[in-house]
């Protein structure tokens, strides 16, 4: 009897494993039938995903969602945004509550191999840092021994922080919060000496202080934090669409194609431009999309550089330099495979 039960249980488990990819493979059809893509974003992070007082979402991660909607539905506005905490984000994707996650999420070995998820690229190369009040008189993270540190739970920053202090023989007292807004509120209220997170997030959170100039981001970067969109495993078609939507933006910037000049480029005799914009070849069909999938992305959302500068660039409150996020031809490491 035990053997029969064991065999039955094993068979059911196998069926469950086989069924998961089949169910996941329906994402593209579900989005098309719904006429809307559902994208998980943060609960509110300036420059990356933040709703205004009318509920309109803006940010780099938001535009990454919109690029996929433009590719699939031909309309970048056809997105429903679901705000998620760091603890909620992976469960929401695994359960099918959202079609993709674009929420300043770090690509790591564990997340890529044990959660049933696939990272579809990097839309922002980042690293963890420290925000301190100027009145503290600290100029280096090596001077933070004994400090109290505000940190968001459910993030890679918790482990990185522990590793950094241990390796440098320093002690700290963690002050843990559930959301990034709570961490900056705790920092502002004096509940901690230091706020730690990805540097991009620190620049964003600093804008929420009563006096942003009262705090400074220390020079040390203590980790690698490649941030990017995430999808469920077992759905290669959807994975390819999300991945190549970002690659299309990077290739467009490299070719000098912008939302402003893309219509002129439709007449280009450059074979690479023709393949990208769908005036020749079958690149869209290979993704299960229309020929103008990349045209719709760039026309409605912009190339990668436009997306970066509009949301976090030098003329925004965050004033972040391209740095690592510049194209490989401009001294950065943003690099996309060719569309051919």
Automatic annotation (TrEMBL):
<dbReference type="Pfam" id="PF00497">
    <property type="entry name" value="SBP_bac_3"/>
</dbReference>
<keyword id="KW-0732">Signal</keyword>
<dbReference type="GO" id="GO:0006865">
    <property type="term" value="P:amino acid transport"/>
</dbReference>
<feature type="signal peptide">
    <location>
        <begin position="1"/>
        <end position="24"/>
    </location>
</feature>
<comment type="similarity">
    <text>Belongs to the bacterial solute-binding protein 3 family.</text>
</comment>
<feature type="domain" description="Solute-binding protein family 3/N-terminal">
    <location>
        <begin position="36"/>
        <end position="265"/>
    </location>
</feature>
<keyword id="KW-0813">Transport</keyword>
<dbReference type="InterPro" id="IPR001638">
    <property type="entry name" value="Solute-binding_3/MltF_N"/>
</dbReference>
<dbReference type="InterPro" id="IPR051455">
    <property type="entry name" value="Bact_solute-bind_prot3"/>
</dbReference>
<protein>
    <submittedName>
        <fullName>General L-amino acid transport system substrate-binding protein</fullName>
    </submittedName>
</protein>
